[in-house]
Protein: Integral membrane protein
Amino acid sequence: MAQKLPRSVLWLRILLFVVAGLTFVFSAALFVLLGSSAEAFGHALFTSLPGAVQLLWGLFVPRGGRAVFYGVLLTEVLLVLHTLLTLPGEGRIGQLLFPVAILALLSRPSARNFFLAKDD
Structure:
């Protein structure tokens, strides 16, 4: 990494990696609990997709740019909307913690300047 990342961007990247890791651990546990079948593999693969997307965004964060900014923003907004839409049925409000924290870090002036000041 040639340049030093602002603190908010560094914490944003760390949270993206943490969420990706937790998602992969949850998917592996789901696969084990459901049994080693094709259906269980499909469920585990489907639940690991948000983690894979967040892992990729975490890897692209040091590059900066508008595409990374809007990609992370879109991913987290979709996760918040999904959680809010499934909230009455499942009641998992704790799922909002990481996406809202990432959105808060992304909206900080230092993070906006880091991402939006770069030309793609």
About this structure: Helices lie at 7-34, 38-60, 66-90, 97-106, 109-116. Residues 7-34 form the longest helix (28 residues). The chain is about 80% helix and 0% strand. Residues 27 and 46 are 8 Å apart (CA to CA).
